[in-house]
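ok, trying the design again with the full structure, not the truncated one.
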């Protein structure tokens, strides 16, 4: 199923809208478009909007950037490890082909390495 996202937005709440509110400092409105799985009758619904303070917005942005940074580092580490393993398999396979007789032990080793990485 495909995921449909209609975006996220921010709006600075006008001063007259904040009159009489319990949290007048929560002057930033965050809103999301619907997020749902196409064809899913139990679609995920996110609240239309919520209000936060500018400080909370900065914390939210900072935490999101930190989390995404950690994900990026992990992806790059995994990609580096994969390329390293792939290079080792290539070298082993090349040696086997050049020797003219790939041995059963080499093939078993390649299969075992493939099992570990899948």
């Amino acid at each position: 199923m495909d995921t449909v996202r209609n975006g996220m937005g921010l709006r600075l709440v006008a001063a007259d809208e904040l009159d009489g509110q319990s949290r007048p400092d929560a002057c930033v409105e965050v809103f999301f478009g619907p997020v749902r799985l196409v064809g899913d009758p139990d679609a995920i619904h996110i609240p239309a909007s919520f209000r936060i303070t500018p400080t909370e917005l900065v914390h939210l942005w900072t935490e999101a950037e930190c989390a995404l940074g950690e994900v990026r580092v992990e992806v790059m580490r995994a990609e580096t490890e994969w390329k390293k393993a792939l290079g080792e398999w290539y070298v082993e396979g090349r040696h086997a082909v050049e020797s003219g007789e790939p041995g059963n032990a080499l093939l078993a080793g390649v299969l075992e390495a493939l099992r570990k990485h899948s």
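Keeping the full-length input from now on. Residues 68-118 form one domain.
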